[in-house]
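Re: folding output
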Amino acid sequence: MKTIAIILAAGSGRRLGSDLPKQFLEVEGRQVIEYTLDAFEKCAAVDEICVVTHQHHIPEIKSIAIRNGFHKLRDVITGGADRFSSSRAALEFYANESPETIIMFHDSVRPLIAPRTIEECVKEMECHDAVAVGTPSTDTIWVLDSQTNIREIPPRGNLYNAQTPQCFRLGQISEAYSRAAADSGFVATDDCGVLLRYAPECKIHVVKGSADNLKITYKEDLSILASLLKSRSLAYDKQDESILSNKI
């Protein structure tokens, strides 16, 4: 099965309070989206990459790909005003692909996705309708009423924090999006929500993710990302020193 990674990069960065969208901010010498693209470029399970972004940033994405030698990047297309319309734009772009093609949506602002997690998602697609990445919730979750009073406390054992990638077969997710587009009252916050609502017969299997696969949303997240990148760099340096010592 062909696997296509759709990197959603049309966000404005409004919640971070930056004039520049967060996916283009530089952390430890590289833009956030460079780390994201690098993970998918290095993953053997991914056949090609498509980035969905604002039309003004298309040249920037292409420049990043050339600079880094990201050969899997097939195209950069214009996204919409929200996640739903950006995902749908990607599905329409690939409308002529086989319905069995695996479409893997990923947030551009989750730069520390591990290639092994991507590979696990693709492998699980061999025996599941859809696959998504998530982590067990370690916090108690409150459901509030309209007056911000606690109305309900769901059992934590069944609660997971949603992450990306989220993987689907092109035919199934495209049909679900077509149905959702015709429903003016539906609001989706992720791609799994669309499939769950409009193709409930499709079961979505969850692959356990990692706390490192954080989503850059607020300024403090950039500091966390920088710390994680420094830790990784230090670990790689120590590994190289160990290999060199063994050779000597």
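--- second protein (sequence, then structure) ---
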Amino acid sequence: MSNYEEEEEEEEEEEEEEEEEEEEEEEEEEEEEEEEEEEEEEEEEEEEEEEEEEEDQVEEEEEEVGE
């Protein structure tokens, strides 16, 4: 194999490695985004539960006052 061929092969390998790294980075970013979305959803659910509990308490207090 000539030097030129070796250089070409090395360049191709480097390009492939770079592409793989980019793909891995993209996957990691996607995973992070998904995790963030899940966390946001959990927070929203918790807030809703807290609001419901507060409403329940208010209703109970109103009932007690009504009696």
